[in-house]
């Protein structure tokens, strides 16, 4: 049977070095775990901040989408109003008494036509912007689900 050597001075140098290496390895791992444990609250706080930022971004994007839809409806209302005025002006063209009145009605008709075109352009722009915001909203919600789930 092998006899255990209790006194470190009596141990061979090779065995002492092996024991020292094991001790250093264990201490290094303990230090790594302590460092990781110390950084964990900061990482949790960062994740919580990220989640709050995503929630804020989502609510802001939803508000922007609602505003864009309201603007689109407003432009459609302006188009309806311009169309009704256009019909009125065209009807008045049948009862023109002089050239000045005719020119004035022509300018009003042209103005209402341009107003309709402008509103249609703004509606297209708002719809494009709305589509982009909806895509951003979907991405933000997916990222929030990913962050909140992990």
Question: Mind sketching the topology for me?
Answer:
Blueprint (H helix, E strand, L loop, with lengths): L12 H81 L5 H51 L1
Summarize the structure.
This protein is mostly helical and 150 residues long. It has 2 helices and no strands. It has helices at 13-93, 99-149.
Descriptive account of the structure:
This protein is mainly alpha-helical. Helices cover 88% and strands 0% of the residues. The protein has helices at residues 13-93, 99-149. The radius of gyration is 38 Å and the shape is rod-shaped. The two termini are 55 Å apart.
Rg (CA only): 38 Å
Low-confidence segments = none
Q: Note the run of SSEs as H and E.
A: HH
Q: In oligomeric terms, what are we looking at?
A: single chain
Percentage of residues in helical conformation: over 70%
Task: Report the end-to-end length measured between terminal Cα atoms.
Answer: 55 Å
Number of helices: 2
Structure summary, number of beta strands: 0
Instruction: Please state the overall shape, judged from the principal axes of the Cα atoms.
Output: rod-shaped
Structural category: mainly alpha
Strand content: under 5%
Mean pLDDT: 88
Q: What is the makeup of the main sheet?
A: none
């Amino acid at each position: 049977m092998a006899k255990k050597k209790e006194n470190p001075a009596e141990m061979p140098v090779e065995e002492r070095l092996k024991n020292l290496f094991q001790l250093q390895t264990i201490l290094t791992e303990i230090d790594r775990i302590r460092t990781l444990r110390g950084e964990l609250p900061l990482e949790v706080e960062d994740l919580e901040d990220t989640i709050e930022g995503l929630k804020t971004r989502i609510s802001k994007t939803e508000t922007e989408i609602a505003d864009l839809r309201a603007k689109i409806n407003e432009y459609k209302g302006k188009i309806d109003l311009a169309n009704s005025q256009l019909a009125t002006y065209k009807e008045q063209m049948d009862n023109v008494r002089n050239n000045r009145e005719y020119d004035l009605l022509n300018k009003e008709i042209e103005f209402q036509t341009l107003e309709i075109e402008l509103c249609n352009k703004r509606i297209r722009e708002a719809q494009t912007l709305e589509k982009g915001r909806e895509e951003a909203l979907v991405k933000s919600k997916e990222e929030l689900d990913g962050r909140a789930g992990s």
